[in-house]
Amino acid sequence: MTNQLKVKMILSKEFKVGKIDDRIYGSFIEHLGRAVYEGIYEPAHSSANEQGFRQDVMDMVRELKVPLIRYPGGNFVSGYNWEDGVGPVESRPRRLDLAWKSTEPNHVGTNEFMNWATQVGAEVNMAVNLGTRGVDAARNLVEYCNHPGGSYWSDLRISHGWKEAHRIKTWCLGNEMDGPWQIGQKTADEYGRIAVESAKAMKLVDPSIELVACGSSSSAMTTFAEWEATVLDHTYEQVDYISLHNYYANRDNDLSNYLAQSLDMNHFIKSVASICDYVKAKKRSKKTIYLSFDEWNVWFHSNEADKKIEPWSVAPPLLEDIYNFEDALVVGTLLITLLKNADRVKIACLAQLVNVIAPIMTDKEGDAWRQTIYYPYMHTSVYGRGTALNPIISSPVYDSKDFTDVPYLESTAVYDETNETLTIFAVNRSQEAPLLLEGDIRDFTNYRVIEHIVLENDDVKATNQINRTNVVPHNGGDAEVRDGTLLAHLPKLSWNVIRLAK
Ligand code: AHR
């Protein structure tokens, strides 16, 4: 019999990280590849509603309970004229999208997307173009979307058939403005200036909005840290969040190292929080800047295929990563890491939602289907609402190529005060042995296990495809509470959701 590894956890209602902002389960739809066209919008599809939206996709987005969706980019937004996407569809221009070398027909724009988001029950995190545009286009878009009426832009919205203002609360001030690939890339000082002036004007139009300033495109950028400090120096009093972006990959096919990459995400979060607090101290400010991790996921499978795509088509199959079982485990560890930092990370967006590095895939004129990463995302979004707890965990550790002291058990817990439920999310990183979890659940007296969901697979490279669901969770885990102690076997290489209630 395989040896099992013992892990211990102490859980108490008093050991808290903080209240979870539901928006950490956000996602992202960019005008990129088949995310919009053939993804959420396909008027000729058998499930399309009268606005042309695929209802099979909408059902899955609702199942994921996605609270917030970033739109319309991404790199796309840095060349986007929002005015192209409003008004009569037949008069909208076809434009070259320079970010993705595609043609944008503008059949879906701001109002259509807001309508779709309302139907799936999500708020929108709207990005403005600070690449080729600036203060004027940004403040006009806020007026178009949020002002009730009686002004040029708000009346134009009404004349387009949208009497009620969209009341968009969260706005991104551009996208990845430090990146050489970005249209209208800027230095930190150039971006800081345009961001603060846009922020001022946007908040003058609607003081209730919240703003996200662009942090670095990833922690690997040579300007990382200095960029954040300079941008916040300019924008500190006008913005509410700074963004973090990072994508994870298993390019060397080194599973123990790949599974440890959530430690890097954790370090990145702590570093950006420290930079925010450094600027806070320097400015003697009372205000805290929170974090918006508004692009995160696994992204690498599609890199080679993307090089072969012909430019300038509409909705080319770009960034169509097919995720395997090990990717689902990594996504699980990343979600746990966001929860562990719930006191500081208030917004996070799984990039992206449909077809483009996405949990949901669609076939043109065919079915929609769930990728492997769909499941940890759904489980945390559905069961991970409430207060993030800070369990005391002791786990054996291992070393990998880039990381030391990687715990075999990656885990956290969420207490939902309203329903008095406790949910433990856990990944067993061991490739050899199950973990025997012993949980001291002290002040959760009379709690019992109502479900132990497990995602496991003998083949780490197993994928789902249309009509082929190899990687799906089961609820046959063995967790139980015996004499006040929680006991569970977490199979080797597995994602676990242990749900307890009184
Ligand atoms: O999500 C895909 C792309 O990744 C986004 O457009 C960009 O912001 C990032 O580089």
Structural account:
The chain has 502 residues and is α/β, with parallel strands linked by helices. The protein has 11 helices and 27 strands. The chain has an 8-stranded parallel beta barrel, surrounded by 6 helices. A 6-stranded antiparallel beta sheet has the order 2-15-19-20-27-22, covered by helices on one side. Alpha-L-arabinofuranose binds next to loops. Alpha-L-arabinofuranose (AHR) binds next to loops.
Bound molecules: alpha-L-arabinofuranose
Number of helices: 11
3D shape: globular
Radius of gyration: 23 Å
Strand content: 25-35%
Give the % helix. 10-25%
Number of strands: 27
Mean pLDDT: 97
Lateral strand order in the biggest sheet: 3-4-7-8-9-10-11-12
Q: Report, as a whole number of angstroms, the end-to-end distance.
A: 35 Å
Low-confidence runs: none
User: Main sheet, how many strands, which sense, barrel?
Assistant: 8 strands, parallel, barrel
Q: Structural class of the secondary structure composition?
A: alpha/beta
What's a quick, concise take on this entry?
The chain has 502 residues and is an alpha/beta fold.
Using brief descriptors, characterize the structure shown.
single chain; 502 residues; alpha/beta; 8-stranded parallel beta barrel; 11 helices; 25% helix; globular; binds alpha-L-arabinofuranose
Please specify the SSE layout and strand pairing:
Elements: E1 5-10, E2 16-19, E3 26-28, H1 55-63, E4 68-71, E5 95-97, E6 102-104, H2 110-120, E7 123-128, H3 135-146, H4 152-159, E8 170-173, H5 188-205, E9 210-213, H6 226-235, E10 241-248, H7 255-258, H8 262-282, E11 290-298, H9 303-307, H10 325-340, E12 345-351, E13 360-362, E14 368-370, H11 374-383, E15 387-389, E16 392-394, E17 397-398, E18 406-407, E19 409-416, E20 421-428, E21 435-440, E22 448-456, E23 464-465, E24 468-469, E25 480-482, E26 485-490, E27 494-501
Parallel strand pairs: 1-21, 3-4, 3-12, 4-7, 7-8, 8-9, 9-10, 10-11, 11-12
Antiparallel strand pairs: 1-16, 2-15, 5-6, 13-14, 15-19, 17-18, 19-20, 20-27, 21-26, 22-27, 23-24, 25-26
Residues 30, 73-75, 175-176, 295, 351-352 line the site of alpha-L-arabinofuranose.
